[in-house]
Design brief:
Elements (H helix, E strand, L loop, with lengths): L8 E5 L3 H14 L2 E5 L11 E4 L1 H9 L3 H7 L5 E6 L5 E6 L2 H7 L4 E4 H14 L3 E3 L6 E4 L4 E4 L7 E4 L1 E4 L6 H7 L6 E13 L5 H8 L2 E6 L2 E7 L6 E9 L8 H25 L7 H11 L1 E11 L9 E2 L2 E3 L2 H4 L8 H20 L11 H33 L1
Parallel strand pairs: 1-2, 1-11, 2-7, 4-13, 11-18
Antiparallel strand pairs: 3-6, 4-5, 8-9, 9-10, 12-15, 12-16, 13-14, 14-15, 17-18
Bound molecules: flavin-adenine dinucleotide.
Family: Belongs to the paxM FAD-dependent monooxygenase family.
InterPro entries: FAD-bd, FAD-dep_Monooxygenase_BioMet, FAD/NAD-bd_sf
GO molecular function, one term: monooxygenase activity
């Protein structure tokens, strides 16, 4: 009996970090033909800085994009804690000292937009096509493959052997097809984040902030600042605190309204905290106020997670969810990008084994069985690791 063909073509929905990294890994390791469809009309300019820990840098290296990231991001790993109740800094310590010693990899902080540019260049060099501005209203399966139709964008319909849903926490692929009842849950915590050019700060403030990652404990939450580009010419800051969810039926619009209110309110809260009489932050508080003054780009970011339950499969038929679409977690464990890299790497490795002709390949099984077996092994290989990291992220968010 002839052996069924393993999958060779993939539609990837979502051109964020997960979609681009998965396309790259599958092309390089399994020689799959991947096409990426992204909802936005170009890659998004919104986003703060993303922290990449040592294991993430190692995986980026294995995909050949590490040099590009190091050329744009900031590799400082010195962490200094401050308290506004005393003028002295508590610390510092090198967060990546041990890993630099044992693995040769430190950590990197890079703007999400810079990271996407590096990935888009690598994807283009690998011959992978990315279609922007594609809105997806329908997915269906036939015996021969999976079909998606788009009601916006230049491509009206596409078919492939498998479809990978890499479309983030509010994933259309999950809602339309894989797991319609599984909805993201608001954690009760929201962040305010900003980007400020070093050129707009006093030279004393800029030099102090260039010195590393600074975490300041305040009575309302932790205020973090990090240099996020090579040469430390730009700083990213984030402040997290509890914010009730908006009481709106259309929750996305609700957040839009809340966003405007919160930005103004939180800016005032920050000035209030940093300059109130009870704090003795003095010079340090003045540096942080200088940073907020110099901020030209500011965003409000409600933190969601996707609760996990054993019945919530990550796949159905020929369709598999990866990255935040499958297992979004609060960013507080600093592992979001590592989870995406591990997802892409494991799937590429499993596919490359499936594509290598061998005597152990099941005879008589159809393509659907091969794909089902592949996706089952993928989910088995990832679920407990992802759930451990998600639990850790919840512990961190509760402690701030
Ligand atoms: C705009 C933005 C800014 C972010 N900023 C930060 C940050 O500052 N710090 C941080 O730690 N994390 C941030 N994140 C989250 C972080 O990028 C992810 O947690 C992580 O990188 C996982 O990546 P992902 O590709 O799975 O999901 P995402 O990064 O969410 O990417 C999903 C992609 O899919 C696209 N998409 C969504 N719906 C559809 C659809 N129906 N059809 C096609 N494409 C679709 C989105 O436009 C996006 O490009 C941000 C996410 C987004 C979308």
């Amino acid at each position: 009996m002839a052996r069924a063909e393993p999958p060779r073509t993939a539609i990837i929905i979502g051109g964020g970090p997960c979609g681009l990294l998965t396309a790259l890994a599958l092309t390089q390791r399994s020689h799959m033909t991947c096409t990426v469809f992204e909802l936005c009309s170009s890659h998004t300019t919104f986003g703060g800085a993303i922290g990449i820990p040592p294991s993430g840098l190692q995986l980026f290296g294995s995909l050949g994009v590490l040099e590009g990231l190091l050329a744009r991001g900031n590799a400082s790993s010195k962490l200094v804690w401050h308290s506004l109740c005393c003028a002295d800094a508590l610390g510092p310590f090198d967060m990546a000292a041990r890993s630099k010693e044992t693995t040769g990899y430190g950590c990197l902080r890079i703007k999400r937009t810079d990271m996407l540019e590096v990935l888009l260049e690598a994807v283009a060099a690998a011959g992978i096509v990315v279609h922007f501005g594609q809105r997806l209203p329908a997915i269906y399966e036939t015996h021969a493959g999976v079909v998606v139709s788009f009601d916006e964008g230049v491509i009206a319909e596409a078919t492939a052997d498998i479809l990978l849903g890499c479309d983030g926490i509010h994933a259309a692929v999950r809602v339309l097809y894989v797991n319609p009842d599984r909805r993201p849950m608001y954690t009760g915590s929201a962040g305010l984040m900003g980007l400020a050019s070093a050129a707009l700060l006093t030279s004393e403030s800029a030099d102090t902030l260039r010195d590393g990652i600074h975490a300041t404990m305040t009575c309302e939450g932790t205020f973090m600042t990090v240099p996020c580009r090579t040469g430390s010419d730009e700083f990213y800051w984030a402040f997290q605190r509890k914010v009730p969810s908006p009481n709106q039926t259309e929750w996305l619009n609700g957040w839009d309204i809340r966003s405007c209110e919160e930005i103004e309110e939180l800016k005032d809260v920050l000035y209030g905290i940093l300059t109130c009489e009870e704090t003795h932050g003095g010079k340090w508080a003045a540096i942080l106020c200088d940073l907020i003054d110099a901020t030209r780009e500011m965003r409000f970011y409600p933190v969601y997670q996707l609760p996990s339950a054993p019945g919530n499969r990550w796949y159905r038929g020929r369709i598999l969810l990866l990255g935040d679409a499958a297992h979004a977690m609060p960013p507080h464990a600093g592992q979001g990008i590592c989870m995406v890299l591990e997802d892409a790497t494991l799937l590429a490795n499993l596919l490359s084994v499936a594509l290598t002709p061998s005597d152990t390949m099941p005879e008589g099984d159809g393509a659907e069985e091969i794909i089902g077996d592949l996706f089952r092994r993928y989910e088995q290989g990832r679920r407990s690791r992802v759930e451990d990291v998600a639990r850790w992220a919840i512990v961190v968010i509760a402690s701030r």
